[in-house]
Design a protein that fits this description.
2,3-Dihydroxybiphenyl 1,2-Dioxygenase, domain 1, 3 helices, binds cobalt (II) ion
Amino acid sequence: MIGRLNHVAIAVPDLDAACAQYASALGAKVGAPQDEPDHGVTVVFIELPNTKIEFLYPLGDDSPIKGFLEKNPAGGIHHICYEVDDILAAREKLLAEGARVLGSGEPKIGAHGKPVLFLHPKDFNGCLIELEQV
Ligand code: CO
């Protein structure tokens, strides 16, 4: 069921500084910031040869990233995203296996314009997992 690693998301306390560092020190191809009001984040994608890095920065007062950055002021890995072919089939299988889907349980449209779901980190070794249908 699980497919490729789509991206690793890093919450950053200073988006401009993080972009400048990846562009300059790492020579990375850094995309333009995109506001995602439905998710309470501003995202920047960095293209690597085999996957992407997603910078997450809080957008709005009830951003889910705000609390994360309060606990991790220097930033940190926030989630990893795996690709699936059929997100509803993946959800049914995971629910049957006892995993918890966050929020309403219905897929939302993620930063790439594709349906995504998040799985409870306590069910996955402390790691928040995003599934994206590709
Ligand atoms: Co993501």
